[in-house]
TrEMBL record:
This is Purine nucleoside phosphorylase DeoD-type. GO terms for molecular function: purine-nucleoside phosphorylase activity. A purine D-ribonucleoside binds at residues 5, 180-182, 204-205. Catalyzes the reversible phosphorolytic breakdown of the N-glycosidic bond in the beta-(deoxy)ribonucleoside molecules, with the formation of the corresponding free purine bases and pentose-1-phosphate. It comes from Gallibacter intestinalis.
Length: 235
């Protein structure tokens, strides 16, 4: 049986999956890192592939931008395809002077300004958080790979183009490390369905310094994060 937004037949998606926002990043990961990648989803061009990494089956699925979009894909992966481990591989903007472009942030928790939690009939004071199983494993693997990474609170926002220039400072004041747009919904879906989820993001721009990663830096930095996430998914 197919789900509404994913036209894969049952059994075609691995137990562990990487989740980039950009479907072309999913294609890039499949073609450059996976052995024998097979396209399982092309509905809306939101590409999904299954292949093997170091011999172990793993999938990669684009999720689109924002919580409504990742909410749909991960819900179907959880309810229709039996996926157990969800690793977001995204980009984010840093609010913290010690976290530079190219660093990796692990979202221990994801604060949010979104109303996604209404789906579960809970107040917005709910704290969406990562699964300890993936977070603790990521800590060990990241150390072993000698990565520049930090773990902490991020904020998942509904809006990319805020009109108030200082909007991010209220989050920085509470030691929120970075902004992205999906982790909170991923964590809520995972909590509800008792799945494992971890969002990791590579910093591509900096709110304090105004720096933005170049195209070359994005490729190099993504490479580290992708190899990290694939080790995490397959060990
Ligand atoms: O690079 P991705 O994974 O899409 O993540 C970030 O980039 C997009 C905004 O440019 C949002 O989806 C945000 O969460
Ligand atoms: O959501 C995002 C992602 C990267 N950089 C940002 O400023 N916001």
């Amino acid at each position: 049986m197919l789900s509404i937004h994913i036209n894969a037949t049952k059994g075609k998606i691995a137990e562990s999956i990487l989740l980039p926002g950009d479907p072309l990043r999913a294609e890039f990961i499949a073609h450059n890192y996976l052995e024998e990648p097979v396209l399982y989803n092309d509905v809306r061009n939101m590409l999904g592939y299954t292949g093997r990494y170091k011999g172990v089956p793993v999938s990669v699925q684009g999720t689109g931008m924002g919580m409504p979009s990742i909410g749909i894909y991960t819900w179907e992966l959880m309810t229709e395809y039996g996926v157990e481990n969800f690793i977001r591989v995204g980009t984010a903007g840093s609010f913290n002077e010690n976290i530079k472009n190219g660093d990796i942030v692990l979202a221990v928790a994801a604060s949010t300004d979104s109303n996604y939690s209404h789906a579960f009939n809970i107040p917005n004071s709910y704290a969406p958080c990562a699964s300890w199983k993936l977070l603790s494993k990521a800590h060990d693997i990241g150390r072993e790979m000698n990565l520049s990474m930090t773990a902490g609170n991020v904020v998942s926002c509904d809006v990319f183009y805020e009109t108030e220039p200082d909007w991010w400072k209220k989050w920085a004041k509470m030691n929120v490390l970075a902004v992205e747009m999906e982790a909170a919904a991923l964590y809520m879906n995972a909590a509800y369905h008792r799945k494992n989820a971890l969002a990791m993001m590579c910093i591509t721009d900096h709110f304090i310094t105004g720096e933005k990663a170049t195209a070359e830096e994005r490729v190099k930095n993504n490479d580290e994060m992708i190899r990290f996430a694939l080790e995490l998914a397959t060990r």
